[in-house]
Amino acid sequence: MEGYFALMIPILGISLGFFGVWTHHQQKMIKLRIQEAGALKGSGGSSPEQAREVAELRERVKVLERIVTDGGYDLATRIEALRDERALPAAIETRAEAERLS
Predict the structure, then answer these.
(1) Could you tell me the sign of the dihedral formed by the alpha carbons of 80, 84, 88, 94, in that order?
(2) What is the dihedral of CA 63, 69, 73, 78, to 10 degrees?
(3) How many Å is the maximal CA-CA distance in the chain?
(4) Distance between alpha carbon 78 and the CA centroid of its chain, in Å?
(5) In this predicted model, what pLDDT tens digit does every residue of 8-31 receive, in sequence order?
(6) How many domains does the chain fold into?
(7) Are both 41 and 56 inside the same structural domain?
(8) CA dihedral sign of residues 68, 74, 76, 82
(9) What are the pLDDT digits (tens) for 54-69?
(10) What is the DSSP letter of 76?
(11) I need a labelling partner for 70 at 20 to 30 A (CA). Which of 38, 59, 64, 93 fits?
């Protein structure tokens, strides 16, 4: 019987140690989940900065829609011009030169 208690005391101590670490970990995870939920809830509102950014993105989409739906204009030239404003004159010169040679 004494051997049984002698064996159970270290096992019980180790088990309680593991249980303590596990509960501490669970508490941390719950705190993190609460923080994440608060951050997601807080980011749901629209701040003036977010409203400005949304307006800018909508304007960009409008410009892109105009470019895509405008069939009478050279799409490749406009895209290159948007990448670099200085590319437009160079593209026009290259195109004019190609038309002269053909």
Answers:
(1) negative
(2) 30
(3) 108
(4) 28
(5) 888 999 999 999 999 999 999 999
(6) 2
(7) no
(8) negative
(9) 999 999 998 888 877 7
(10) H
(11) 93
